[in-house]
Design brief:
Distance between the termini: 130 Å
Number of domains: 3
CATH superfamily of the largest domain: Head domain of nucleotide exchange factor GrpE
Number of strands: 6
Strand content: 15-25%
Strand order of the largest sheet: 1-4-5
Largest sheet: 3 strands, antiparallel
CATH topology of the largest domain: Nucleotide Exchange Factor Grpe, Chain A, domain 2
Structural class: alpha+beta
CATH architecture of the largest domain: Roll
Length: about 190
């Protein structure tokens, strides 16, 4: 029995002591762990530098976008009125012709007719660009559309709180108020 006991002791000793001298032998993975950590560190460093590069490129792209949109906005602001100014140049030419006629022709009816044509042309040009006059007389006074200059006694009870006279017309540009009407209100 002594031989059996010795064999059992040797087996237990071999199980507890793991001596691996060959790195290719099974169970030698702990020898390569440090190398794996190094490659993992290199991988993380490479990822970090890649993310930094992406970040810098994104910031540069955003900066370029911001400059480009600021320039486009400035160009738009500077040329926003170009369309309306070009259309009003025709009216200005008509005004110049009317002024020449006023100096050279003494016939008042012809002069009135010419000036009326210029007025109609400017109204139609502005209307084509979306400008519309506000109808205020005999309408209820509305703080959103009207600016009351003064109040006067209403000629009759039905005109109380209504616009009696219009000192300065109000205008819409594409259904948005661009100038409030200055009005006289009945009280």
């Amino acid at each position: 029995m002594e031989d059996k006991e010795i064999l059992e002791k040797n087996d237990t000793i071999n199980d507890t002591i793991d001596i691996n001298t060959d790195e290719n032998a099974a169970g030698s993975t702990h020898l390569n762990q440090e190398v794996a950590e190094e490659s993992e560190l290199e991988k993380l460093t490479a990822e970090l530098s890649e993310q930094k590069d992406k970040y810098l490129r994104l910031m540069a792209e955003f900066d370029n976008f911001r400059r480009r949109t600021a320039k486009e906005r400035l160009d738009l602001i500077q040329t926003a009125g170009k369309d309306i100014v070009v259309s009003l140049l025709d009216v200005l030419d008509d005004c110049d012709r009317a002024e020449k006629q006023l100096k050279s022709n003494a016939d008042i009816t012809v002069q009135k007719e010419g000036v009326q044509l210029v007025f109609n042309k400017i109204r139609s040009t502005l209307q084509a660009k979306g400008v519309k006059a506000m109808e205020s007389i005999n309408a209820d006074f509305d703080v959103e559309k009207h600016e009351a200059i003064t109040e006067i006694p209403a000629p009759n009870k039905s005109q109380r709180g209504k616009v009696i006279d219009e000192v300065m017309k109000g205008y819409y540009l594409n259904d948005k108020i661009i100038r409030f009407a200055k009005v006289v209100v009945g009280k």
